[in-house]
Amino acid sequence: MEDKVILDGVLAEFSKLAEIPRQSQHEQQVSDYLADRLRKMGLSVVQDAHNNVIADKAAVAGYEDAPLIMLQGHMDMVCVAEKGRAYDPVKDSIKLINDGKFLRADGTSLGADDGIGIAIVLYILENKLVHGPLRIIFTTDEERGMTGAKNLDNKYIKDVKYLINCDSEEYDVVTIGSAGSMRMLFSKGFSWEEATEKVGLEIEVKNLLGGHSGMVINENRANAIKILALILRRLQEQDIYFEVSNIEGGVADNAVAPHAQVNINCSSKDKDEIKTLIDNITGELREAYHGIEKDLLVLVKEVPAGAKVLPQKASTDMVLLLNSLHSGVYAMSQLSPVLPELSANIGKIEINGAEVSISVLPRAATNASLSIIKTSYGSLAQGFGFKLNISATSPAWNGNPQSPLVEMAKSIFKDLTGIDMKVESSHGGLECNHFINKNPHIDAISIGPNNLDIHSPQEKLELATIVPQVKLLQKLVEGLAENA
User: Fold this and answer.
1) Angstrom distance (rounded) from CA 255 to CA 345
2) 3-state class of 275 per DSSP?
3) Among 411, 427, 430, 450, fewest CB within 10 Å belongs to which?
């Protein structure tokens, strides 16, 4: 009965968040909601210039001298929808579906990354809890560039002793490190030209798994943008002339591209050869991704020819760059057989006005590897005549597997579940990276319930893993206070 009360309480908090559109960089409404919610609980609340919410809860009597604990999550979410689904992430709520085992959304991403972390924190604050001084920090723009965490004033971090980040996706794992990353944007301006070919073809790659590039990059999932690049390069190799009138694909730089399409003009005599070539490539892809991308489709259909097209030099440079850029794992960790050491993801391609842009997100376990990638990709950009803009660099975080906080989390989880909690680092990026960079003396971990296929319309939250996480967080807070 107690577990049902906890689960219902957490889901009620999450449901309220799901009603609020909270795409990255559009967090004003959810920030206001959270600030108001915390004030009504009696906490002292600040909203900073970046809409981060910082709230302090005074210690209960007798625990005033306990160390300051920071509970943290991010309020924004990756907003993606099934292709063809009418969805405005700035205006529309998330429609929830609870089948008793999983919570998911109707045709969109769920936003449990990191809405469930915030919901759990709100729930425990509303209920009886023994605790020392608590600081609650809900940040903005984690998914686009971690600018909320990056720009958080150091005064909110400098006195923190313990940090519990609630943004992990495996309930039996305590995370003690995460990869650094840098957001890269390759761009090339051009002048549109008049089309010369009269047959229009739309080539669409669809039905791929996609997923969070930090979590699934080692699963050999196909990237739709790379498949398009392969097709276009094969056309070039066969000396088949084509003109690109549009290209678009992917949803975000931190998500493996699940779909992409290109519109080309060609001659009537080459039309059938192009279709045959694509059929052959599709056969290769099904062999290469056998057992993984079971629903992979490459569709070709005739459409009206584009009136304006990219210049041939710009088109060729784009195809060559896309084929030269890696999307997947470069190297695996020497410490774990399943943890990538270095990877990169081509997340998005589009044409805006008269500029083609390609978003790439490299991740690395060390800052040195990021520096090497920066030089390498800078050379590629220069070689193919692209401009490379690098932003939102996040440092790597490498924690202590024997820290007091880690040991306490493992002991509590074992008592709660009978299961040994694994201690791991993540190839995904966490805001802990920035907080530790501001205060290297913080003892930090990241925890959370099982959340599958995040950053995709298939995202789903395993309900049975929520209550153990709530109890773990409660007992951590109480234990740190009582053992001070």
Assistant:
1) 8
2) helix
3) 411
